[in-house]
Write a structure and sequence with these properties.
Belongs to the major facilitator superfamily. With about 250 residues, this protein is mainly alpha-helical. It has 13 helices and no strands. It has one domain: MFS general substrate transporter like domains (Growth Hormone, Chain: A, Up-down Bundle), CATH 1.20.1250.20. Helices cover about 85% and strands about 0% of the residues.
Length: about 250
Amino acid sequence: MAAGAFLELLILTAAFWSARGTVVNTQTHAHAEHGDGDGIEPRQLWRERLQNSALIQSLHNSATWIICVFIFIYAGVEIAMAGWIFSFLVDQRDTSSFRAGVVNFLYWAGLTLGRVILGFVTNCLHAEKSTVMAYLLACVACHSVFTLVHGSFATSVTTVTLLGFFLGPLFPESVIALVQLLPKELHIAGVGMAVTLGSAGGCVFPFIIGTLANVAGIKVLPLVILVMLVSCSLLWLFFVFVSKRRL
């Protein structure tokens, strides 16, 4: 893990070494040279600068909050499914530890492949919002089959792998959709806020599911994940509605 983190640090440093943000900072803060009038108290000046900051302006945009909640729930689905599927298969489906580990591996493999392959597919179709909705419906369908079909290990493997595959592109596509809707000067602040707050779902929901499993058993996992997937679908529909009103 440490070696992987160090390798990631080197790759990111090399990729963004020349990204100084000079253009963005110049465009964003150019008005500050003309907006500071004489006779304004420091406290009032600070308040005006805070209200006019890119972060506050991005939070005034409803699309930022919708994508933030969407990523919050999505990250919860992704991490909770990966973290608890092993225990669910072993305890509820009488699956051997080896087979449960294989399912967990295939889930991550499907997620990785989906993020790479379906990202290109979505870009080629030129209908990002409709395509993401189709991916969400596919996730709900795969998870429903996994929940309802108990006796077939092959079905469990297939549905969990496909669930990961269709989950893969949701995170990057939601970020792209937000970027397309926000003004250029709010891209960094809006996406940063959505990703930062949204990714917290990867910490919160696994803990909630673990608490529920401690009280009612791990059998609650499929129902909780299904509710979260349906919630993501409804949020995306709401985002599409909001984006159409803004265009």
